Amino acid sequence: MKSLLQYIIVILVVGGIISCSDEPTLNLDEELLTGVKHAPGLISDLREESKDKVVIGNHSYVLKAYLWRDFMPVNPPDGKPLISINTLVNQDSAAIPSEIEMKQQYVIYNDSLWVTDYTNEVSNDPEYELERISRSGPKWGPNVKVDVISKINNVDTRKTYLLIVEDQNIERVE
Question: What is the pTM of this model?
């Protein structure tokens, strides 16, 4: 009985230490499989865990997002699925180190969540910006506001950050 009590105390202490970390407490690898889902609770947790600016090393980073749907005449009448470009910006205008990676994107529209991995398309020009693209999203909008969250990893330290930019318009391209 005494060893069981000691075991419980150790678990509570370790759990308390872990919960004081700056890293998100959501297990994003297990909880968020790609696709669109109705997930108000998860959306609330993501918003709570996300920051509009993060400091990694000695540098401050913010996220920019541009989202659109293509309605050009050669496309279906209801338009093509959502495309999103996310740009990680080092506010110090210093080069983004190679150990910083953008891994996954979360787009929130009302109570719906689009979770997707970025494509292999990567741009790092200028060197203080890292751009990633997500394609084949839902057919939301156009002309509706969404919140965009990017999961950022530091491969050297194995830390994960959630960076958010809110109230982004889904544009209509014609």
Answer: 0.82
